[in-house]
Amino acid sequence: MQPAPDLTNCEREPIQWPGYIQSHGYLIALDVQLLSIVQVSENCGNLTGQSANALIGRSINELTIGDLPGSVLHNVLTVALRSGKPELLNPYRVDIQGNTWQLLVHQHDNALIVELEPAQTDAPSEALSTQSLLSQTMSDIQRSASLSDLLTRIAPTLKQLLGFDRVMVYRFGDDWHGEVVAEAREDHLVPFLGMHYPASDIPKQARELYKINLVRSVVDVREPRVAIVPVNHPQHNRPLNLTYAQLRSVSPVHIEYLQNMGVRASMSISLLNRGELWGLIACHHYEDARQIDYTTRQSAVLISQVLSSAIEIRESDETAQYKASLLAHEQTLYEQMLTDWDVAQGLTKHSTTLLDITTATGAALLFEGQLHTMGNTPTPDDITALVDWLRTTTTERVFQTNQLPNLYHPAELFRQTASGVLMVVLSREMNEFMLWFKPEQIHSVSWGGNPEKPVEMSETGEVRLSPRKSFDKWTEEVRNRALPWRQEEVATTLKLREDLLQLVAQKANQIRALNEQLRLAQEELEAFSYTVSHDLRSPLSSIKSYTEIFLEDYGHTLPHDALPILDKVVKATDRMSLLIRNLMDYSRTSRNEVNMERLSMQPVLIQLRDELLADAIGRKLTIRVGNTPDVYGDQSMVSQVFSNLLANAVKYTQAVPQARVTIDGHGNGTEVIYAVTDNGIGIDMKQAGKVFELFQRLDSATTYEGYGVGLAIVKRIMGRHRGKVWFESNPHQSTTFYVSFPSHLS
Amino acid sequence: MIDILYIEDNPDEADVFRRVMSRMDPTPSFTILTSGSEAIDYLLLKGSHLGTTSPLPRLVLVDLNLPGQSGFDVIQQVRATSRTRYLSLVVYSSSDNPKDIRRAYDLGANAYLIKPGSYHDVTSMMRRAVEFWLPLSL
């Protein structure tokens, strides 16, 4: 038994000069000028009757290969060399001891490399014409609607044409791990479709070689390989470079790998996209050795090239289509935001959401202090913590990773939903972000068959394949990793960012314009009410004055019951005059500028008290002025506040035999609070909501003069001072109104 | 020489004023002008009063809300002219807006009276004003 192949050694193995060929053919390396033998495969001894070592240094002329005289070969090769492209000769048929061989020549590594391969003598149906291979391939290309459709069609076509048991299309990922994306197989074979394999299964130098030599075949893994002697090419001091040799022996590790899968013969065809290896068409044969005719292999090279250009076109088409579909969704999102005139709703509440502009499986929007999530996401707390970390980690407007847990360890806990993160900053200052999440890749793979199944057995109990080993390895590699973010996805999220920010700006401008309109309308209304109130005064004062004059001049001539009627006219003008005055006061509280200054309250309150006491002559009324801390505010407005509060206190204690009003203030560092307390009728708390409303009067106050303006003025003035007003009342016992002014220490 | 120049555009106010004056003893002499521009021409000897030598009144009562040049304009012009700079000038307006009051004083008004809107109240207010200002304005 050979030791188990260690796949990690593959990276270092010089597969282009293995020093061996496959055993079904012969290799002779000649000096290009002399046509003398430099190296031969060891099995050439069988053909020539001499030991391989004895052939070295001899001219090809002196040789007899079976019954083929060396001079014939010499002439053929001389002619081939003269053209400058000896491979144009291929394949050259020769008969050796009754068998037909194909002579294959190429010049490389300072040597003319001559290979002999048995010509296929199988049924003529299997001898495929280049034409039929190509025409089938072209028709598959033409009939396929998409790349995956093309690959799905091409696999059975090639299987039928090439006669392998299994034909797979294997596609490389960005990290060079591979996935079987299309497959045609004999019914009894276990499907490999959807299987993933680690990058180390096809090491780097193999991939490099596959870009040059587009078709390789292994005729029979059971046949031991044949050494080339001497080991080193004399000019290079290393084995002969077999990059272009048809018989090149593949790595023993690869042979072991094929054997583990039960493969007897294989062929692989490279698929390139823009000069880079895109994938492989891998053909497996299980029961027998299988040699594909040189001409057919050359056709396969053509197929490789035709398919590669088809892939190139389809890929760029599909990239363009993918991009277009993402952008179409982006446009939909933009229109939704516009229609709703709401960013969060437009992005999250319709059938098209943030999830549709990437391949993410989860998305989050942190906007205006709200977190919105869609699809599979970490918990809100996890997202918040992640955003905090991202804020400190990057200053860019976009951040992307496909292995978050390796950068941010707490993400280990939610790697199943968010191993990949794409974050787009909307506003750092406002803490507004968009995030997309991709799951750990292992959870996003759909497996052909049960990945936990250890080994696949044939009916006879033979081990048919061991992808399990590969699979474990791949699982290890993709832990904490998501599929990478595609360029098109990132570009689309940035487009959305631009649209969104533009909308936010438009919205801000619109609100600003609306505010301005509102302000103008308000100003107009204030000016209107002020002018109307003012202009109402003149006729009113005329009515009153002329009534008084009429009474003075003709009062004595009137019947005595006419006098009370005219008295009512005068009283009505007084009430209207008061109403107008109130209205003007109220409108003035918002029209006039607030001139903030430090106000000494003691003289203001004493004067107010004295005026009120003077008007209340005959009442048993006490007004006590307590502590009077300074207040920061507009002088006339502040005195209006206290004038209204004290006047109310005096008014609503009219019916109380011993009316007591106190005003007392105190500061607490952040604000100065004044309390005006009386023992009047008070306020039923059921009506508390109406107290500060304009023109609202409480049931209990209907017998008192007033229009429900005073406290509305107080509230408005306190609002303009960024202060507060509130009250508490125990009717007929104690009612206190509080006003608080911010202390402007700054 | 007249005692009072009253600048008032509202005929009712002017009418009440005439009556109040006529009931005083002694009755002050007065002139009523109905616009700010006219008052400025009269006081500063401009326009139709150019070249005349009408003597200055002892007291000017000026309403604020006037067509054309407002009461404020009158105060400003009067105070800016050397001939009238020290004239006794009292605002007589229905506005109780602190802004108006402050502006009037800032421009140089000697006093600010708020129209009481009643014949009786106007009578007592004018009596006090006349008693206060006329003897002083020599």
Q: Key terms for this structure?
A:
heterodimer, A: 746 residues, alpha+beta, Beta-Lactamase, 4 domains, seven-stranded antiparallel beta sheet, six-stranded antiparallel beta sheet, 18 helices, 40% helix, B: 138 residues, alpha/beta, Rossmann fold, five-stranded parallel beta sheet, 5 helices
Would you give an account of this structure?
- The complex is a heterodimer of chains A (746) and B (138).
- Chain A has 746 residues and is of the alpha+beta class.
- Chain A has four domains: 7-14 and 124-318, 2-Layer Sandwich (Beta-Lactamase); 20-118, 2-Layer Sandwich (Beta-Lactamase); 342-485, PHY domain (Beta-Lactamase); 594-742, 2-Layer Sandwich (Heat Shock Protein 90), CATH 3.30.565.10.
- Chain A contains 18 helices and 29 strands.
- Chain A has a seven-stranded antiparallel sheet with strand order 1-13-3-2-8-7-6.
- Chain A is rod-shaped, with a radius of gyration of 49 Å.
- Mean pLDDT of chain A is 86; it is low at 1-9 and 446-468.
- Chain B has 138 residues and is an alpha/beta fold.
- Chain B has one domain (4-117): Rossmann fold (3-Layer(aba) Sandwich).
- Helix content of chain B is 41%, strand content 15%.
- Chain B contains five helices and five strands.
- Chain B has helices spanning 11-22, 36-44, 71-80, 98-107, 119-133, and strands at 4-7, 30-33, 59-62, 89-93, 111-114.
- Chain B has a five-stranded parallel sheet with strand order 2-1-3-4-5.
- The longest helix of chain B has 15 residues, at 119-133.
- The radius of gyration of chain B is 14 Å and the shape is globular.
- The model of chain B has no long low-confidence stretch (mean pLDDT 91).
- The interface between A and B is medium-sized, with 21 and 19 residues.
